[in-house]
Amino acid sequence: MNEQVKELWGHELEWIKDKDLMEKVADTWALALKKSILKPEDLKKIPFTLLAGTDLKVSFMDHKRAVVHIAKAAGEKMNEFFKDELPVNMDVLLAGAILADVGKLLEYEIKDGKSIQGKYGHYLRHPFSGVSLAEQCGIPPEVCHIIAAHAGEGDQVKRTVEAYVVHHSDFMTFLPFKERLK
Ligand SMILES: [Fe+2]
Prior knowledge:
The chain is mainly alpha-helical and 182 residues long. It has 10 helices and 2 strands. The protein has a two-stranded antiparallel sheet. A hairpin with a 2-residue loop joins strand 1 (108-111) and strand 2. Helix 1 packs across helix 2 and helix 5 packs across helix 8.
């Protein structure tokens, strides 16, 4: 596995039982890092969203990892309580959660030391660029579906249970930063 990917996602990637899928998820992150102007150090520094004001201190990596950990806990609890009534495929869920925002690496440009949305991101938001990167690395469609449907655009399509879990894990940890009753 690429050293940069291992540094960012080594711990969470180990949770994926299907090692072929795990490698493809790692490859997708490696491809994104190769194409991006951002380095792993930047991902630990830049704010996770450009939509929650300029004071936000939660980094891109802290937020992405939180989403993966919350999605894992949620999926495990759903399997425990709902069993065969609503089975959650944990490998698909984890791969989708780790890859949901991989396309964001192509959205950013650094200008005057600050991260801003670049031209590519202006035309192609990360659910689209994320699927493009993932398909180049052989990620299966049930995982690409999670990337495609994790954000607002996904409200237009029918989501799998795994995509619902990732969507809500992402939004419950984003919306209160953007706007909340205090
Ligand atoms: Fe996203």
